[in-house]
Amino acid sequence: MKKSLLLFLPFYLFTLLPLNAQEQKGVTLSGSIQSDMLIPQDDEKIGAVKTEDFLTNTYADLQLQSPHVDAGARLEYLEHPLPGFEEDFKGWGVPNFWVKGKLGNQELTLGTFYEQFGSGFILRAYEERSLGIDNSLLGGRLLLKPLEGVTVKLLSGRQRHYWKWNKGLVSGADAEVAIDQWIPKMQQSGTRLTIGGSWVNKYQKIEENVYVDHTHRINFPKYVNAWDVRANLNAGAWSLLAEYAQKEADPSFANGYVFKKGHVAMLSGSYSDKGLSVLLQAKRSENMSYKSADVLGISSAINHLPAFTQDQTYALAALYPYATQLADGEWAYQAELGYNFKRKTALGGKYGMNVRVNYSYVRSIPHEFVDGTERSKLAGITFYDYESPFFKWGDETYYQDLNIQISRRMTRDFRLNLMYMNQCYNKSVVEGEGGMIHSDIFIADGKYQFSKKTTLRGELQYLSTKEDQGDWVFGLLELSLVPHWMITVNDMWNCGDTDTHYYQGLVTFNTGSHRIQAGYGRTRAGYNCSGGVCRYVPAQKGFTISYNYNF
């Protein structure tokens, strides 16, 4: 990929010329720079190890837009990557580059691109820098809108895997039809109905003889197809989404080389009106690990399954995050109820109050091996098939949490948020060992506005558990001086087993399109998660600098 930089130097030179006039004759230039830096230090107490004097993850995006042609490229510098990014991340170059032609409602993209079909059950190519995820496709993507309310996508490409492109090919097609665009009465009533269908195929090069242990040779399929159908209905305050996907037999390291189809079914409904909101979701998945690469390798994920657990932003509530179990499968449920109590009522008080209750539950599915199924004694590999009745639960609870949040303005200048969370986290399932962890978490978050430009926010959190490392306490103070400054200090203290403080001090400065943050402190080892996907980050200590610029 480093050679790609030389190929795109003319593009950079061309786009840098009109910087003094970024909008001329319908042509615009935009871009961004993001650089996260660490000057690491050794810390035996928390297990932080200084590997180099300076570490950084740096990205520079550039995009040129015109009425008929768009183009873009991204320079990435990870020659000395931050902790938690494997050795494979190390390098630099221009891994992402693309040109898009536009004619009416049609678009053709050549180069690298991201795409998602439906909820991502069979295809989600996306970027999440905090997790080190970039599984973009290198190839072509065609977008067509042949009729009103009809959208068709066709694509094919090789998937990114760190600084290489997988040998296999990912191809697919997606079609969505907005039924309401054809029925005037639905438009008049504000009712929207969209139905869609997708197909994805992965091709993988197969060696003639592939052995997964000393005795068994597997005939891996060269082509693995997946299908998805869905319907989304919105009518006034109501919304309903139903989706089903299926994948052909796809034996791999992730699923124990089992020859079995994969399935996922989801039903999600919501209601929101006059201060009341309700969300109900259920999802069952089985053997839905879908990756592009050599059959024996750990590779890029083609698809994505949401976790159906609430993404937590508070430090202790996010201490034990859940990761979706793609290969083994799971039953996942989520329910949420929210209500705004009106101002000047008995419960709402002078300024009103919001209450939200969220419940998540994830359970295993059974694996009942059928007659004739053979298991390798050496590798513990399933070579044939197993049964898993659709509505039957397995023996293990993977995750459960119940949290209640109350948000209320106490005075004109002071707002208070309170939260209680009861959590069950199966560390053995998510992380490989550790058993079930039961915890109770209490959080108070207050913000006081001294003036239009000065605000002080504070957090106090407490996590109580008898398992793992025991109890935790977290405190934070954040002073905001609009429009330029923010000063933050916090400390996460394991007052249970280790008596260890993870302290941080941060100063942030904003001016125009520039943002720079400098800090010093410790970060505990743990998992960083987003949407059910997690990456392990080792403990670290040192000076940090983060710079962001958008133009």
Summarize the structure.
This protein is 5% helix and 55% strand.
What gross morphology would you assign? globular
**Percentage beta strand:** over 45%
Helical fraction: under 10%
Main sheet properties: 24 strands, antiparallel, barrel
Contiguous helical run count: 4
Distance between the termini: 26 Å
The counted number of beta strands is 36
Give the mean pLDDT: 89
User: Structural class given helices, strands, pairing?
Assistant: mainly beta
What are the low-pLDDT stretches, counting only 5+ consecutive residues below 50? 1-23, 375-380
Radius of gyration: 26 Å
Q: Would you kindly provide a written description of the structure presented here, covering whatever features stand out?
A:
This protein has 551 residues and is mainly beta. It has helices spanning 2-7, 9-16, 184-189, 427-431; strands spanning 23-24, 27-40, 55-65, 69-78, 91-103, 106-113, 115-116, 124-125, 127-128, 133-134, 137-144, 150-161, 164-165, 169-178, 191-203, 223-235, 238-247, 262-273, 276-286, 291-292, 300-301, 330-341, 353-363, 368-369, 386-387, 397-409, 414-426, 436-449, 454-464, 472-481, 485-494, 500-511, 514-523, 526-530, 533-537, 540-550. It has a 24-stranded antiparallel beta barrel. Strand 5 and strand 6 (106-113) form a beta hairpin. The protein starts with a helix and ends with a strand. The model is unreliable at 1-23 and 375-380 (pLDDT under 50).
Write the layout of secondary structure elements.
Blueprint: H1 2-7, H2 9-16, E1 23-24, E2 27-40, E3 55-65, E4 69-78, E5 91-103, E6 106-113, E7 115-116, E8 124-125, E9 127-128, E10 133-134, E11 137-144, E12 150-161, E13 164-165, E14 169-178, H3 184-189, E15 191-203, E16 223-235, E17 238-247, E18 262-273, E19 276-286, E20 291-292, E21 300-301, E22 330-341, E23 353-363, E24 368-369, E25 386-387, E26 397-409, E27 414-426, H4 427-431, E28 436-449, E29 454-464, E30 472-481, E31 485-494, E32 500-511, E33 514-523, E34 526-530, E35 533-537, E36 540-550
Antiparallel strand pairs: 1-2, 2-3, 2-36, 3-4, 4-5, 5-6, 6-11, 7-8, 9-10, 11-12, 12-13, 12-14, 14-15, 15-16, 16-17, 17-18, 18-19, 19-22, 20-21, 22-23, 23-26, 24-25, 26-27, 27-28, 28-29, 29-30, 30-31, 31-32, 32-33, 33-36, 34-35
